[in-house]
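User: Design a sequence. Structure:
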C-alpha cells in the first residue's frame, strides 16, 4: 500500500469511528433528557476527529474493533464513558446504578491508566500556560475541580480510557510513552487539529482570535 493510499485508508477509518461514536452517543440517555450536544454533529465531529488525527492506523483499527465488539455484545462505549465519569461527579449514583453493570478494571490496568493520565494532565497544564485564552475554552483541568455540572479533563480522560480494550489501551499507552520520549505534547497536537478544522492557520492565530 502506498503512503497516500495508506493515509486515505486511515482518514476513512477515522471518519467511520467518529460516525460510530456519534451513533452510540445518540443512544446515550441523560438524566433530564437529551443533552444539547447530542444534536450538534459538526462540533462533535470536529472535536473527536481532532483526537483521532493524532492516532496511527493500528490504534485506530483496534478502537474501531472495540466499537464493533461493543455493538455485538450490547454495550455502548460512549454511555460507559460518561458513566465512568460519574465516579467523581456523582459517586453515590455511580456506586448504585452504574458500577455493578460495567466491566471492572484490574488494579494493574487502573495503575497504568493513572500513569498515562498524569502525563496528559501535565501536557494540558503546559498548553494552558502557553495559550491561556485557548486554555480558558477547555474543560477545567483536574478531578479535584469536578462539580455535578462540570467534568474536568482528567475525569473525562479517565472515563474514556476505561472503555478501551486491553489491546487498545496498550497501543494508546505506547503512543503516550513515545510522544513523551520525543518531548511532544498531545494536547497541543490535538488542539492544533481542532483549530485547523475550524479554519485557523495555527494555534497563535486561534489564540489571537479568542481576544476579539
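Assistant: Done.
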Amino acid at each position: 500500500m502506498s503512503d497516500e493510499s495508506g493515509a486515505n485508508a486511515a482518514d476513512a477509518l477515522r471518519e467511520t469511528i467518529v460516525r460510530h461514536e456519534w451513533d452510540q452517543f445518540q443512544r446515550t440517555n441523560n438524566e433530564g433528557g437529551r443533552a444539547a450536544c447530542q444534536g450538534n454533529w459538526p462540533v462533535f465531529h470536529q472535536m473527536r476527529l481532532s483526537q483521532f488525527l493524532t492516532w496511527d492506523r493500528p490504534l485506530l483499527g483496534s478502537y474501531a474493533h472495540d466499537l464493533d465488539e461493543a455493538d455485538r455484545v450490547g454495550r455502548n462505549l460512549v454511555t460507559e464513558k460518561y458513566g465512568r465519569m460519574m465516579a467523581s461527579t456523582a459517586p453515590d449514583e455511580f456506586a448504585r446504578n452504574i458500577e455493578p453493570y460495567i466491566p471492572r478494571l484490574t488494579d494493574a490496568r487502573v495503575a497504568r491508566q493513572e500513569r498515562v493520565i498524569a502525563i496528559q494532565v501535565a501536557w494540558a497544564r503546559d498548553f494552558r500556560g502557553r495559550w491561556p485564552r485557548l486554555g480558558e475554552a477547555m474543560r477545567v483541568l483536574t478531578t479535584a475541580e469536578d462539580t455535578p455540572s462540570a467534568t474536568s479533563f482528567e475525569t473525562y480522560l479517565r472515563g474514556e480510557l476505561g472503555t478501551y480494550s486491553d489491546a487498545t489501551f496498550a497501543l494508546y499507552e505506547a503512543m503516550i510513552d513515545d510522544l513523551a520520549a520525543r518531548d511532544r505534547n498531545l494536547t497541543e497536537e490535538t488542539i492544533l487539529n481542532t483549530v485547523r478544522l475550524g479554519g485557523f492557520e495555527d494555534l497563535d492565530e486561534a489564540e489571537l482570535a479568542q481576544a476579539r
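DSSP finds eleven helices and no strands in the chain. Residues 3 and 207 are 33 Å apart (CA to CA).
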